Amino acid sequence: MSFLIDGLQYSNWSEEIFRQIRAGGVDAVHVTIVYHENFRETVASIERWNRWFERWPELIFQGFTAEDIATARATGRTAVFFGSQNPSCIEDDIGLVEVLHRLGLRFMQLTYNNQSLLATGCYEADDTGLTRMGREVVAEMNRVGMVVDMSHSGERSTLAALEHSTRPIAVTHANPASWHPARRNKSDTVIGALAETGGMLGFSLYPHHLKAGTACTQSDFCTMIARTAERFGTHFLGIGTDLCLNQPDSVVEWMRTGRWTKTVDYGEGSKDAPGFPAMPDWFRDNRDFGNIASGLRAAGFSEPEVAGIMGGNWARFFATSFGAARTQGMKRAAE
């Protein structure tokens, strides 16, 4: 069975977008439920999602295990898996990793651009790697079955997480820095390590991560995926669109600034346009996933390879990542 899975979205959720997801045939999506929010605010976000699950049960439901992807396909719905883009949700309490996992959190980034209690973000000048707490939290995430996501982390921290984690990790939404040198995109060293250890790379459609930004063509994007596959293989590649549909520009300020500064941090992009850039015209929302699949075919991928990149690889990763570890030291290798 071929699945369609998006490795990351952060939209202004509504019935309109949920219906777009269904129109696009998305079987599962990893959604960001919090950035800089603390634990209680994270619980409030989960409460909001619970209301949405109650209001539109014919469209969406909360995903907890990989089996929920097949349930979604069989029932014509989308399984929603929760993630956090910063470790603020666990505050300084490692015990909250297990609590949040029980509430459904399946991904957590160790950093969001800045230095955190766990690791260094990609915007810091000095990347010191995993902290003492970071190593402990990674071990706890491995134990309970929460994915270590290094999408916004620095190079040394990302490689340290790859080395320290006893389970494969993910970069849910980024592209090769060799293709477009955004600070958020990843080096070939990181991409190669993900491939070798059974991790996952979700290719991002967010314009700041794309060569030529909004003007990036379908052909350029899919050719970039093909070049990555030629060098490292297709087994660890997926899509992580980083869609931020219908979000007000004020959300960009919260994402980048949070509570850590009194000034606006513009981050990626121009200071003259700190808001959300327009998506490429060939991928405007969830109804356009077919354009990625057709572009991959045109770039030379076989049908099984297209199926893997569009969701099969994520499904396999979910199946080995979301459950509690049965043994210690389950160091991994790519199949």
In short:
The chain has 335 residues and is an alpha/beta fold.
Q: What does it look like?
A:
By secondary structure, the protein is an alpha/beta fold. The protein has a single domain (5-321), classed as Metal-dependent hydrolases (TIM Barrel). It has eleven helices and nine strands. Strands 1, 2, 3, 4, 5 and 6 form a six-stranded parallel beta sheet that branches. Strands 7-8-9 form a three-stranded parallel beta sheet. Helix 5 (132-144) links the parallel strand 5 and strand 6. Helix 8 crosses helix 10 and helix 10 packs across helix 11 (303-321). The longest helix has 19 residues, at 303-321.
Can you give keywords for this protein?
335 residues; alpha/beta; TIM Barrel; six-stranded parallel β-sheet; three-stranded parallel β-sheet; 39% helix; disordered C terminus
Question: Which CATH C-level class is it?
Answer: Alpha Beta
C-alpha end-to-end distance:
19 Å
Globular, elongated, flat, extended or rod-shaped: what is the shape? Answer: globular
CATH architecture: Alpha-Beta Barrel
- How is the biggest beta sheet arranged? 6 strands, parallel
CATH 4th-level superfamily: Metal-dependent hydrolases
Number of domains: 1
What topology emerges from the helices and strands here?
Elements: E1 5-9, H1 15-23, E2 28-34, H2 39-55, E3 60-62, H3 67-75, E4 78-84, H4 95-102, E5 105-109, H5 132-144, E6 147-149, H6 155-164, E7 170-171, H7 188-197, E8 200-203, H8 218-232, E9 237-239, H9 249-257, H10 289-298, H11 303-321
Parallel strand pairs: 1-2, 2-4, 3-4, 4-5, 5-6, 7-8, 8-9
Helix pairs in contact: 6-7, 8-10, 10-11
